[in-house]
């Protein structure tokens, strides 16, 4: 496993981020991701003079890191964030990107996931991801259906599709790692229908029983099938209950494991998220960002079928 982690770390540093000598690089991690952070550190010190910062684990995806860490990120050339809870949609990450830093978040990354999915052909993944993101940009209406009962309509007219390719070599470029999705922020008040989450759902992970989410005017009106998720959304307001993201997985090495970081990248799967979408063209400033994965969907973009029962047909 150690050698596989080292190879994956080199892929991240050289192939994905293209880190160069004398660049200011920061790795921010928490204890559950310590082995990942140090595998990156061991390879980074061969190239540059990085810093590494341990923070306390956050309590939910989207919670801000300490202010001092936010300041460090904003002054870095490159950041890598392997943490148990996601920093992807935090103001700290967004501000760092806007200031010119490039980097990657790795929420919930494990040794097994890193060793398997980061030893992939990211040029192949990027090709499909870029193609899908361009289609999202051109699309007005999305329809998603599954045999499990999903029937969801989204309005994404005027919103840009974003590619999460894993290739992050220019200023202000950002990606999840492992990468492999095209995603968009639907118009916040226009989503309607029912989505049956049957893969995994942050923060509970792998689902043994489906979670059914009913949506009207872009917001959750009912959650049933899982008491934990029912209670979670019940304690939040309208912004946290707003459908904020639609994504399509494009990574051929990813599989459903219960870890949303990987699950949302599974080729031919889709995911929807609730909460904050300011970082990718949305207008919903929420305290959380929680993703739910849907397996084997059929997806139409402006009435054109692009995925049939989890298989790309484009």
UniProtKB/TrEMBL annotation:
The keyword Lyase is annotated on this UniProt entry: no
One Pfam family here: NicX
MF terms (GO), sorted A to Z: aminopeptidase activity; metal ion binding
Keywords: Aminopeptidase, Hydrolase, Metal-binding, Protease
Source superkingdom: Bacteria
Xref: InterPro entries: M29_Exopeptidase, NicX
Transmembrane segment boundaries: none
One GO BP annotation of this record: proteolysis
Name recorded for this polypeptide: Aminopeptidase
Source organism: candidate division WOR-3 bacterium
